[in-house]
């Protein structure tokens, strides 16, 4: 976890205190169920909650000190609780194993993290929608291979991003369901020493579903799917960040990250305004993607369980969720305040001497009876001249002066192919597909 | 693609012939829709299908030769079709761009690959279920950290695998839906030169859904999610393969890959019977997982599109699906014919002098009023003696001879804790959760 | 292996024929050594070479047919050789194990692949050097964050690439040495049944060093290092490819991939000239990097060996080396024929109204006694006006009109800060560092 | 960074204080050189060092507060230094850019981290050597595919690990040299505003070499190679950790992690002694390997530089080095105190009824004139009976009772093939190769 790439709400999920609080709730709910089943005295569960309701401070240092001796974190925690609650605490954890606590706790943490990330996506989607509608009909050049292709609108670019993050939201909702299971099944998962009804009770109280078959641990394919989904979302963040980095290039400058007063772009060059936020997002995306492979490697635990997954999760549990939360927040801010320059877009759009209309002329020629190959050749030979003139020549002028072209199309017909609105006529259709309505 | 790790049905999806066939269908269906819209003559579409219905051989070499000149695969294909169909062919591809063909084709291929993989999973699930039920109550030792823990059944191991692959099936069904979209939206995705109804028609004919907003290409987050899902499935394959590799170890030998007559385990050591299939699966899983990262890196294309994704997909499209198909088939065969040795399982289960019952004694002591810490100490001190005796001492004997233990529990009470059936009493519950019923 | 991204020399290393030829040489050289040691008859080795000198065709299909029964590739090969050589063949492979053959063969193949890749790097370095010297003093804008910073030369860009690939060459030479070891140590590597002098003989004949301690297999940390090195080289390829993609953008157009006659940039848009080769290289780099992780996962084999590495190497051995060879060749061609536009570079360099000189003015102000903070503020406030004017205003004019600036610097002093040569004065120094001399 | 997987010496490299101290030294040494060149007053450099020699506390919070306004870390630091040093501080950083400071600082940090890791490897190598010599001739079964193969010694296993980590040491020394470069080249690396002699001076003072051609930043192929090397080392850690995990399995139990008094293996099962340290190392290895991919992705920065690498390095700089340092320390402790059980090794070695001698019999039969195929068949048919008897039958007995075998070999000849020392005769040779002497 890197503090500068962290936000407090997500970070709070991963503190030792938060973890111990979830552990207590798992243990206390389980003790309730054990008491209902007559396995432990009703009073034992009551004692636990009575102490808990005093809102005790979690003494992390004390628990760590016990762990330094026992070398076992859950035993250390239980010992500390027993020191506070007294004799009734011995009924806690009856028939349970540490993994029941640890894995169910991780499920709660990842579920809560997923909820924050879903809210992050909702915030991003709202901003993308607002700005997409704002620039629904702002013409700009569409680029394939970094080369001018044909006109689009800036709103279409954002509509695409909206649709992509909306898919990511659905994927995350599925991954959240995948991860949100409770296992209280005891050693090697047989329920030998603990009734399955305890698991059902704890699951219900914590808002989880029951893990159908655990083997002391919750199977790690669930976690792998969760972190893989975060990796896909990171890929989408990089895509949108890269778009903005491109648009802010000096020669393009169609959009720009907001540049706050007092900000310095470079210690050496006072003229600089750099897309540092989106460059930063590009790097953060690399990290979130980098956590996918360890998560995939965690699936193949030995037999009923080994503990190799645990250290990995101590890193990637916080690091992947905190980083992605920060990145989504940062991206939302970038889009929200993005400086958008329609005039520059218009200027760039016209930079290529009308080349962006080459396809329409090609189609018109074929429809006028010229073979596809000849049409292509006719348009390409004029287009290449414009290309090489660095925008000084006009495709329209050249075409009107090319007798092979004018043999098939009249000047008016040619001119009609250079109409910008022609390219925008289905923007409504696409917006309706993406945003409904 | 490595021939020895390939099966013909999946491989057939990825041949040049198969690709060109899909390309033709996309073009011809699109021409139908264009004809219905009055953009091209009805006869043009008819000519295409008429030729197609002669079941023409796809001359891959001829198409490649054209591509060597044009350096553009779709143009090469269209030129070749035109050579065969004649003049009407010039109406093909009107207003379309290569990506419309390429991306929709890839969607068909990945969708078809997903269908094979889903069938593979169904076959694996059927075998897992059969063998799980066969060994539902075959006792075997459960191991955590590779160390004997408490009894489970061999059926439970397979039930866990069933549940895991059943989750994978659901994930793959979702990934299939994610990938199965059709884009016929023309240059930079604006439909400027092609009516959206063409896309709808082709989508319907090919069994795809319409891509809501494409940018000449189908967005690559869909593909990233698809390949990430394959990576998760590979992780599960490695898990089950690793289980079998462990069970076949000389000292364990509770199960063994089928060893066919005439097979040689080692060129040098005639006594060897090695788990080479599951070791192979472990390696194949590494490959399928390795393809996830390039797929994630493919998401961030520049602006409306660049073509950097294409070379990646020429590798991982076939390699990931063919390898996973092969691996699932191989794993299904391994489980189907797995030699399972219940006698050895029983022998191993009893190897540790009854240590596997330590928890029950611990719980009984605490329920008899001994503190948890004292109970743990009492059991551990006897357990460690058994442990160090290499199975020569019996935990039951030692406990009955420990006055601090017998002060709390009678000999009969202690003996009752060494009952195997105690551990198996919830097997039915778990099977019902996994298999229903 | 994707044929279109393959070159014949590298591909030839990985054919079954080539593999079987190396196998034979290992076996025959080993038999020579065994004969010298008196373990097998001298005539046995002679028989092998006698047959070999007839230059026999390797009947891959026959060997595969035998493997289909024995399920063991080396045994199948030995059987086939015995069918050809006759009775003396039974002395082959005495005391050896399959891995002796397989791993030493892989060492030969990777060593040969490394030699091709080193030659590829040499070719690339030669081209980079030539073009760097050609454009040693061609001024162009240096960009940080995609934003104009200060002038550099195009030669400097290529000198950087040269230095980077020269480092990669040194890394590959080291990786080649790491991989080029011979192990003929028999089952579990103890030399129990084969004298270490056999290994020494084979190593010398094949140009390998002796593996100091093998465990039936050559340790896979060597291979991991090899493939990791290829991954680093791929990263450098992506860097240079990305540079060219940026330079070819429509708005920048300072350099361009060679566009051959007859080439079509787009099936739909005849005006397009796209940087498809460097985009392709970007994708290929993703693949070569993607093979690093499976190679790293291959290190942790079980005990003296398991065979999980084998399937991985059947993919990445050919795929990583063939792809990288192709990519290096393609990149060399791109640089060799790169169209470079000094006029456009000059135009772009002057596009920003002189902003690229902001640092020099800043430094001059501080040296004239203005505090750093005030200097920064003075330059920035004028620079931002120029920035927002889209190149219409001139920084020089504004500075000369700013009384706070002119209080510290005279107009002549300010003008002197706008001298291009100032930025190029150390190009010689850097070239001498990179190219020597 | 996860505190429980961190050691103080390595962690200290990565604190904000440590970073600011290195920044200061870079700036002050550069100011010395600038003063020598007459660019800034001699007194300015003296003022810096005078303040520094008062051993001032680095007020991280104050610097962070300035950064919150300027959004630029180096400017914030310079401002804070100026507040402390006074007017002379304005001569600092003349002609430099932030990257000169940041990248050279990172080089110092990674170089220092490499030095700790090299020392870690030395400590591990010393322990491996000691324990290898201790068990040089302790016989144990060698296993391929997890299946008993032929005898080795425990010392050989450790000698292999020694050789592997010795290779890793050499790789790390090379990676250290690769990373330890100094760049003080100013904006876009042209030295326009700073003399190359400044760089040479700072490099010498900090023990770095001069970066031949930087582009404002040090090229990231260097860092990629560094982190890839750490990933390879992590692979070797996983290999040795996996070996120990296997050896500690209940059925094997040939070695065991030291189990300290007061330790609890399981909260539920008091009998457990689990290889938790080596399982933990397996997980940590996944993390260190996981950082390789982001490092590889960092190479392709845009043009002269973008800042996407920076966030990645804020994670993996500390995380990869701290985790690897911890892992190497933990592994050294595990090997140092490893409980090794020669009796159990002997017991396991004899477990298979002499099957481990099958190869010798095979070779003897062929040398007695039986064809290789027949020899294999004869040995295999007896071996399979022993295999299936679960160690109850003896291969020696069966062979002596097989008339086809005794037709070729006398009983005494057969018995002689069952001699353990035969397998150990080259241990000295291998030890001499690995440890010299």
UniProtKB/TrEMBL annotation, chains A, B, C, D:
Residue ranges of every copy of the Adenylosuccinate lyase C-terminal domain listed in the record: 353-435
Key word Lyase present: yes
InterPro entries linked to this entry: AdenyloSucc_lyase_C, Fumarase/histidase_N, Fumarate_lyase_CS, Fumarate_lyase_fam, Fumarate_lyase_N, L-Aspartase-like, Pur_lyase
GO molecular function, one term: N6-(1,2-dicarboxyethyl)AMP AMP-lyase (fumarate-forming) activity
Alphabetic keyword roster: Lyase, Purine biosynthesis
Organism superkingdom: Bacteria
One GO CC term, this protein: cytosol
Pathway: Purine metabolism; AMP biosynthesis via de novo pathway; AMP from IMP: step 2/2; Purine metabolism; IMP biosynthesis via de novo pathway; 5-amino-1-(5-phospho-D-ribosyl)imidazole-4-carboxamide from 5-amino-1-(5-phospho-D-ribosyl)imidazole-4-carboxylate: step 2/2
Catalytic activity reported: (2S)-2-[5-amino-1-(5-phospho-beta-D-ribosyl)imidazole-4-carboxamido]succinate = 5-amino-1-(5-phospho-beta-D-ribosyl)imidazole-4-carboxamide + fumarate; N(6)-(1,2-dicarboxyethyl)-AMP = fumarate + AMP
Family: Belongs to the lyase 1 family. Adenylosuccinate lyase subfamily.
Name under which the protein is recorded: Adenylosuccinate lyase
Species of origin: Sphingomonas panacisoli
């Amino acid at each position: 976890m890197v503090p500068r790439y962290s936000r407090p709400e997500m970070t709070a999920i991963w503190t030792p205190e938060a973890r111990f609080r979830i552990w207590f709730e798992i243990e206390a709910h389980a003790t309730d169920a054990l008491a209902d089943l007559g396995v432990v005295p009703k009073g034992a569960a009551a004692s636990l909650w009575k102490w808990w309701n005093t809102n005790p401070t979690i003494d992390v240092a004390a628990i760590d000190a016990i762990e330094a001796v026992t070398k076992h974190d859950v035993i250390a925690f239980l010992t500390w609780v027993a020191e506070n609650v007294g004799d009734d605490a011995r009924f806690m954890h009856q028939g349970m194993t540490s993994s029941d606590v640890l894995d169910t706790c991780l499920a709660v943490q990842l579920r809560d993290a997923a909820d924050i990330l879903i809210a992050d996506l909702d915030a991003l989607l709202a901003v993308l929608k607002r700005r997409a509608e704002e620039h629904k009909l702002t013409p700009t050049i569409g680029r394939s291979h970094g080369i001018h292709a044909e006109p689009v609108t800036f709103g279409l670019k954002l509509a695409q991003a909206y649709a992509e993050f909306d898919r990511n939201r659905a994927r995350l909702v599925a991954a959240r369901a995948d991860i949100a299971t409770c296992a209280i099944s005891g050693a090697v998962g047989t329920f030998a020493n603990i009734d399955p009804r305890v698991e059902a009770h704890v699951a219900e109280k914590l808002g989880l579903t029951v893990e159908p078959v655990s083997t002391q641990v919750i199977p790690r394919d669930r976690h792998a799917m969760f972190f893989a989904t975060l990796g896909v979302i990171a890929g989408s963040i990089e895509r949108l960040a890269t778009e903005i980095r491109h648009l802010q290039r000096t020669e393009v400058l169609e959009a720009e990250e907001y540049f706050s007063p007092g900000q310095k772009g470079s210690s050496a060059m006072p003229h600089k305004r750099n897309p540092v936020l989106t460059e930063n997002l590009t790097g953060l995306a690399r990290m979130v993607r980098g956590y996918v492979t360890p998560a995939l490697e965690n699936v193949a635990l030995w037999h009923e369980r080994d503990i190799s997954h645990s250290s990995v999760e101590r890193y990637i549990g916080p690091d992947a969720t905190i980083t992605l939360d920060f990145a989504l927040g940062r991206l939302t801010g970038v889009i929200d305040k993005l400086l958008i320059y329609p005039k520059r877009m218009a200027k760039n759009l016209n930079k290529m001497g009308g080349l962006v209309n080459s396809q329409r002329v090609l189609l018109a020629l074929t429809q006028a009876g010229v073979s596809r190959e000849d049409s292509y050749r006719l348009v390409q030979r004029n287009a290449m001249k414009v290309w090489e003139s660095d925008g000084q020549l006009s495709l329209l002028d050249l075409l009107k002066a090319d007798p092979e072209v004018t043999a098939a199309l009249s000047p008016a017909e040619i001119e009609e192919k250079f109409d910008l609105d022609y390219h925008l006529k289905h923007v409504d259709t696409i917006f309706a597909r993406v945003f409904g309505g």
